[in-house]
Design goal:
The chain is an alpha/beta fold. It has 13 helices and 15 strands. The chain has a 7-stranded mixed sheet, with helices on both faces. A 4-stranded mixed sheet has the order 10-11-12-14, with helices on both faces. Strand 10 (179-183) and strand 11 form a beta hairpin. The chain is globular and about 45 Å long. The termini are far apart. Bound molecules: zinc ion (ZN).
């Protein structure tokens, strides 16, 4: 299976390296990663980033608070739809969208693929529909992004099989068995990673289970203060988030040769995936890195 690593949106928060660990200016670089997979049965999109409607009408589709905090750059040429067309396909060729969760920076492009079947954990959809109380919950889930979805498929936690020690949902309805969801709750209640068997190794999109590449280091794990603050601000179950990060560290430690793990918002990781490197390159010459990272 061919996997394209896309950037479907960019956040540029004030704080630069305090967020991303490498920017030299005032603004940081936080991409919204998505993957487009070419399968025998059509295209599968993992997450959608910001969509064309977000670009056209950021207000009122997205909350003012998150737009200001993240300094979101809305660009038509970064939307998943634009990437799909640039690869010579049409929106209708995208038959399935698998979502790590329903946050505004992952579900924004759903309307651009109205014929797609949308796969998400049942708990996540319930939370997005029914539990929008509190400052963050009200602002993170934006029904306008997903209330036109016609073909939902939701999955319970109990239907799992084992995948490298994790409970995983296989047999996603209509999807090839090489694509499976791996529940990783914490950031949101129904947050999940997506594992892909490429035929030459596994990929694990860990979504927002972690935000910074060095959070998965076995020893001396580190995070920037900006991303540590942001993750704490919006996590739903901190205990589960930390527990799942630890499980991911263990997975990387034990199976790092077989599985490439990456998250949704690390610029260096995305760059490495786009260039076919399994590991992010070291930020050579970036003094900012050592100045802003802190042990976690
Ligand atoms: Zn996110």
């Amino acid at each position: 299976m061919k996997v394209h690593h896309l950037r479907c949106g960019t956040d540029c928060p004030v704080g630069g390296a305090l967020f991303d660990g490498f920017s030299k200016g005032l603004l940081g670089f936080i991409p919204c990663a998505a993957q487009l997979i070419e399968t025998r049965n059509g295209l599968v999109l993992i997450d959608t980033g910001y969509g064309t409607e977000d670009v056209r009408h950021p207000h009122p589709r997205l909350s003012v608070a998150f737009r200001l905090m993240l300094n979101i750059r809305f660009r038509m040429h970064e939307t998943a739809l634009h990437h799909v067309k640039a690869l010579g396909y049409s929106a209708r060729d995208v038959r399935h969208v698998v979502l790590t969760h329903l946050d505004f920076d992952h579900a924004g492009g759903l309307e651009d693929f109205p014929d797609a079947r949308v796969h998400v954990m049942e708990v996540e959809r319930d939370a997005a529909e029914r539990k929008r109380r509190g400052f963050v919950a009200k602002r993170r889930y934006r029904p306008a992004q997903w209330d036109n979805v016609r073909d939902w498929r939701t999955y319970g936690n109990s239907s799992g099989e084992k995948w490298f020690g994790f409970d995983a949902v296989r047999s996603l309805d209509g999807l090839p068995p090489e694509i499976l969801m791996v529940p990783l709750p914490g950031h949101t209640l129904g947050h999940a990673g997506v594992a892909i068997d490429t035929g030459c190794g596994w990929l694990l999109n860990a979504g927002d289970a972690y935000f910074y590449r060095r959070e998965l280091d076995s020893d001396r794990r580190r995070c920037t203060p900006g991303l540590r603050f942001y993750q704490r601000l919006i996590d739903t179950d901190r205990e589960q988030r930390f527990a799942n990060q630890e499980r991911l560290r263990e997975l990387k430690r034990a199976h790092g040769q077989e599985i490439t793990i990456f998250c949704s918002h690390d610029g260096k990781e995305l760059e490495a995936m786009q260039h076919g490197h399994a590991r992010p390159q070291q930020d050579r010459g970036s003094r900012a890195k050592s100045m802003v990272e802190a042990r976690v």
